[in-house]
Structure formats: structure tokens, C-alpha cells
Amino acid sequence: MSGAQRNIIGHAAANPTKAFFVRMLTRDISLDDCILDLIDNSIDGAWKSSGKIPTSFVRNKDLSDFSIDVEFSDEVFRITDNCGGITFDDAVNYAFTFGASEQHRAPNYSVGVYGIGMKRAVFKIGNEIAIDSTFRGPKKLEAFRVPINVDKWLSSTQPSWDFDIDELEPRKVPGVDIEIRSIRDEVRMTLADPEYAANLRRVLARDYMVSLMRGLNIKVCGKKVEAPDFEILSGVDYAPMRITKHEKDVKIEIVAGMWSSPPDDNEPEESGRQPDVQSGWYVICNGRVVLDADRTSVTGWGRDGDLPQWHTQYKGFVGVVFFSSKRPELLPMTTTKRNIDVSSALYLRTLPLMREPTRAWINYTNGRKNNPSAREKEAKLKAVDITAVRNSAVVKLPSFKMRAKDKVANVNYTVPVQRMRNLARALGNPLMNYKEVGQKSFDIVYDEYMAEDQDS
Amino acid sequence: MSSTNLVNFSVRQNKSIERQIVFDSLRELVVDLGVKELIYIGLGSVWFSDFILAHRDLGIEEMYSVEEDPIIYQRAKFNHPYRTVEIVKGSSERQIPRILRREGVRGRPCVVWIDYDKAMDQNRMEELKALVQALPDDSFLLTTCKATPRDYGASLKARAEQLQAIFGDSLDGEIEGLDLKNPDLVGRLLSNSINNKLASAASKCGRVGGFVKAFDIRYRDGSPMVTAGGVLPAKENRASASLLVKSAGWQGIVKDPIETPHLTAREIATLQAEMPRHKRLTRSRVRELGFDLEVAQIKSFQDHYRIFPRFAQVAE
Questions:
Q1: How far apart are the C-alpha atoms of B135 and B118, rounded to whole Å?
Q2: What distance in Å separates the CA atoms of residue A33 and residue A187, rounded to the nearest whole number?
Q3: Looking at beta carbons, which residues of chain A come within 8 Å of B170?
Q4: Alpha carbon of A348 to those of A169, A288, A298, A304, B35: distances in Å?
């Protein structure tokens, strides 16, 4: 090609279409993540208005003046905040463009980088949209409304894609109200699910734990999302790791350790015990959890043969990587903010730091298998809030000398589930797992028949 | 032991009122939605009271009664009230899905009423969720279960844990601070949670018409019982079904438990002669009439006098 004379004979059309943004991009994102995208904007506004930054785990009231209310039914979805609002200039120049322009710089320590979240979210949810903003003008509060009828906008043959901005009476406090009607069928089915609000609260409690710990108020259908407990066990011979590293404009903080004792057996989770939704790695970018309780190769498990794949034996481990930067484009998150950009050089350089505590935990769970003293030590550990974990270059765990195993007999048999549950109930706890029912019933029968017998 | 051996289902008066409310309400829904060629599936025992109403009030001909107990099965075959009632041997959990897959049944709207005489548990809830997935559009799904608090755990803690295990997020915090010793509150919690669970199952399996709650009835002859359920409308019927069950005259959602007293024929006739009336019949008025009842009993009678059953012993 080099040096050859170019002879342009035409132009291949490469312009985007409205339908691409409305029908295609919305397929790549779940309803949960759409709602989270809208909340991200509110939280970015709250941090900006507060003058504080989300760079570490702290419990205080930095964001306690800010609230975000999410309400929905099968007919309407609404999100309201008092987090500062979108200014008129921002609305005109970038908030409604599809994708952030080269000139636009995302706000410091925000998570809204790509300029797609709000549009993709509202398009996904419904057809009739009203986005109202009240903001502080030079002299007083001002407001505007951007009404969007998606079907009309799609069918319009006007070359401009712009949305109208209507005059609006300002509210008493600056903030954004988004109301969406004509809910799309697939979204309506989810919003009509009576379990969805509780599930969403759980997702928000986890993904916004950093902001909630700082006092942010979020409600879903009138019920508050509580800041979660996030505790790591500590005591004699046990201490979590906490390290901080800086890479140019990015601060990386890693906290890792033990949140609960590992299981004493490898019984599958389906067998009646509570599922483990907590163990694994969490990755946080500017205060937003983008990966939670991860046990995949993304966070090192089973990666390149370096560490084994996740196994229930490793339950009880928790690790958090907290990236923060005033330049959010440097952070290793995807556009949905639901995963890691695994090609990010920053993230690849962070993985070896995560490997050390993971390896220490694997060794510990291997060693404790035949060391009853481990259970005794674990029983004495105290839970420490993640905000109070002290700096330590490594995770501290006892090492055990392997000893010869006592001879044991494994019992494995099959009974109808209902009979097993009936027996659990009769033994005093209907939620007992199968192993516990088996162990307890064995002990009862053993005591009855072998009262005089020695355990030999 | 099956409760068939303990209770004559046809003479429980509050059960009888509940059953009549269910079929009156179903008739309204069936007419409103224009549902044709319905099939009835239930647990008819040897009495078939619901099957008789299904035929009489809804005009349903094709009916299936599922019976697990081998002796009751033989008795049910002997006692079936119409030739179009087929008695199917086995558990409802196994047999109803099989019935729904039969040639000639598949795709036709059904009324399924799983009228348990036991407490709700995880297995029964799973059975109902599976039916939400399997039933064709414009079908109706109802269930009845016991609401005796002790049946859900001996201690309050065990009770809360058991309800949490059955209903999970469908409780949505409603259990917090609730007096789990109170059968009426437990009954309310159960009917709400069952309906929530069915609605959730409809959403999760992609039913575009969803689940429209239509039944929430608490009643008591001996043990406190609840009946919950609703319609699984086709997408185009959802708005109409929702409108009907939210209308002021909708009978399927009963605010107070049905606890009418056992009355003599003379008492019934005396009270009935005071009806209809827009104001509440007072206890002092009942005393004036020559006898006495509790306020709640008077209210329950007034609420349901039009379908209050009369039983008579015809031989010594």
C-alpha cells in the first residue's frame, strides 16, 4: 500500500443509526445494570456536590445529605435524586450525546466515562421518557425537561438526532427526576415480580457499599438500602492483608483475609445449606463494585495453572481490590461496569498482588483439614470491620504440619428429600443440612446402641 | 392419615362459603376473559364438592381428580359425581403435569385448585411454581393450606426461619416484627407470600401476561386455613383481569377471615330476616332477637349470609 497513488472511487457508509443505539446496545445490558447506570449518575453527582472522593473504605456521613429514590410498578419506573442535577449546558453539550466526545472529560473520581449509560438505560426500560433536572444557575435554581418518545424519535426522518429541551419550573432542591412509562414487555415482567425490589436492594447494598458506608441514602420502593456489614476475621495467628499502591494517577488498595471458617466438608451447596454468595474477590472502581464474589480466572482462580480453580474448600476467603482515580478512563472496568477489562495493563499488573493472599488461603485450607486445632483457633477470632483493617503486607494465617490421618469411614446413601427434611425438622432444625442430619442421627443411634462401647 | 378420613368436607360451613366465593369469582373472571373449553383439575377426595361447583357454576365437563391414597382412590372412583370426572392415581406433583401434557388437554386453559389440608412447605411451593410455568394462558391456579402457626415451627425463631426458607424474597420484609403466634397474621402473611411467589414465578418464566392475584381468603372451621391464587392471563387479557380484581365488587379477596358461627336453623332464619342491611347488625340487636353472638361472628354472618350453607342430619 505504501507509496501507491490513492484513487478514491467512493465512500462506504459508516454512520451509526438510531436503531443501533435503541435496539442493539440495550441487548448487551441487564435491567439491573440499567438501573445501576442511572444510580451511578446520581452518585457521581453526590460525590461532586459533596466535594469528597471515593478512594477508600470509611464509615462516616460525607454523603448523608444525598438521597436516591427508585420506585417502580408494572406501569411506571421512576428515579429521583437530590444530587445536584444536570446543568443546562451539560444537557445541551454532552449528557444526551451518544458516547462521550474527545473534548469531554469525565468528572473527577466518577464512574460515568463512556457517555452511554443513561441513554441506554432509559431506552431499555420504556418508550415514554421524561428527564427533568433542577440545577443551580448563576443566580437561582433553574430547571428543564427532556421529553423523549422513543418510537417517534426513531421514526423521525429529521437528519438531527437532537432531543428537545423544554422549560420547567425548578424543584426546591437540585436533582434529577427520570420517569419512564410505556414499559417494554420484558422489563415489565421483571418489574412486576414481587421479589425484584428485595433482590435489587441486595444488589445495590453490595455494589454501592462504599457510598452507603459514607451515609448515602438509597430507597427502593420506599424501603431503605442498608449499608452492608463487611467484616474480616482477625486474632492470634490470623490477620488480614491491607496494602496500598500508586500507579501514576491510580490508587490501588487491596484488603484480603478470612470472613468465615472454611467448610469442614465439600458438600455441594445445593444440598440444603445456605449458598455462599460472599466468598471471592471484589473489584471496586471509584467506589462502584464492578465484580463481586468472583471465583473465576478473571481474579486469578485457575488462571494459567498458577492457582487452582475455585472449590468449595476455599469458601471463607474474601479479597477486595479498590481502584480509584480522578481519571476514571484509566480504571479497568467495562462499559456495563459489571466486569473487568481483562486486557487492562493496570489490572494485569495488579493480579500478582492478588495472587499472594489467594495462595496463602489455599495453603491454609489444605493444612487445616487434619488439624482440629484450627477450628479451636478460628472459634476465637473476632470480626473487624473492613474500614478498621490495619496495614499489613501479607495475610497472616497459621501453617500446620501435616499429620497422619485418623482412619475414617465415609457414609454415603440416598433417601427421599422429604424424609430428610422431616427428620431435620424432628431433630429440631428444619434448615439443617444433610450432613448435619446424618451426623446427628448417627450420634443418637450410636449413643443408644453403643452406650458402653469405647470409641475404638 | 389423609384428612378425608377425619373430616366430611361437604359439611364444613366456612369451607363451603369459601368454596362458593371461589366459584362465584371464577365465573366472573371466566366470563370477563371469554375463556372457553376449561378443564378442572383438583384433589376431589371422596366428596367432590369443588367438582360439583365447577360443573354447575362454570359448566366445566372435563375434570381430573388426583388421589394418592390407594383406598381413597378406590372410594373416589366409586363416588365420582359425573362420568366426565377421571380419577388419576398418584401425587399431584407428578400427575398434574402429566395430565397437562395429554393429547386433548395440552394447550387448553385449566382451573387447577391444589386444596391441601396441610401446611405449605418448600416442596408444595415448588409444585405450584412448576404449574405456573406449565399452565396455558388464561388458566387459573389456586391453592389452600393450613395457617396454624405451630405447623411452621415450634419456636418463633424456627417459624421465622421456616417461612423465610419457603418464601425468601417474596416476604420482602413483611415478616419483620410480625407476631408469628397470631394465626390471622400468619394467614395473611401466607396468602400474600404465596401470591407473591406465584407472581414472581410467572415473571421469572417469561409469562408476558404475568400472574394476576385474584384470591386471598382466610377461613376457619377447625384449623385456620388460607386460599390464595389468581389467573395467568394471556397478554391481551392482563389489563382486563387486573381491572376486574381491583374493582369494588370483587369477592375473591376477602378482608376478614370467614369465621361464621355454627347456628341452629332457627337462629339462621332469625338473622336472615334482618338482611339485607347496609349498616352493621349489632350485638344488642341480636340480643333483642332473643339470643347472643360475638361481634366477629355477627359480622361474618352478615358478610356471607347469602351463601351461608344449611346442613341437616337426615337420619339417626
A1: 23
A2: 12
A3: 194-195
A4: 50, 20, 10, 13, 61
Give the residue from chain B lying closest to A189, CA to CA: B203
Could you give the number of structural domains in chain A?
Answer: 3
Question: CB-based contact (8 Å) between B162 and chain A?
Answer: yes
| Fold held by B3-246 | Rossmann fold (3.40.50)
Q: Are residues A65 and A208 in the same domain?
A: yes
Q: Say which of B196, B206, B207 has its CB closest to residue A195.
A: B196
How many whole angstroms separate alpha carbon B62 and alpha carbon B81? Answer: 12
**Interface contact flag, A195 B172, Cβ < 8 Å:** yes
Distance from CA of A205 to the nearest CA of B (A): 15
In order along its 456 residues, chain A shows pLDDT tens digits of 556 788 999 888 887 788 888 877 788 889 999 999 999 999 999 999 999 999 889 999 999 999 999 999 989 999 999 999 999 999 998 888 887 666 666 777 888 766 778 999 999 999 999 999 999 999 999 999 999 999 999 999 888 889 999 999 999 999 999 999 999 999 999 999 999 999 999 999 999 999 999 999 999 999 999 999 999 999 999 999 999 999 989 999 999 999 999 987 655 554 455 678 899 999 999 999 999 999 999 999 998 777 999 999 999 999 999 999 999 999 999 888 888 999 999 999 999 999 999 999 999 998 887 787 888 899 999 999 999 999 999 999 998 765 555 566 778 888 888 888 888 888 877 777 888 888 888 888 888 887 655 444
Nearest CA of chain A to the CA of B139: how many Å? Answer: 18
A11 in a domain, yes or no? no
Domain that holds residue A297: 231-388
Q: Among A248, A375, A245, which Cα is nearest to A322's? A: A245
Does the beta carbon of A195 lie under 8 angstroms from any beta carbon of chain B?
yes
ipTM of the complex: 0.83
Q: Chain B closest CA to A274's CA: distance in Å?
A: 10
Question: Do B208 and A185 count as a contact with CB atoms less than 8 A apart?
Answer: yes
Which residue, of A388, A419, A448, is where some domain finishes?
A: A388
Integer Cα distance of A431 and A421 in angstroms: 8
Tell me if chain A has a CB within 8 Å of the CB of B206: yes
What is the location of CATH 3.40.50.150 in chain B?
3-246
* Residues A52, A215 contacting (CB under 8 angstroms): no
Would you say A145 and A163 are in contact if contact means Cβ atoms under 8 Å apart?
no
Peptide bond into B276 cis (omega under 30): yes
For residue A418, give the chain B residue with the closest CA: B123
Domain presence at residue A416: yes
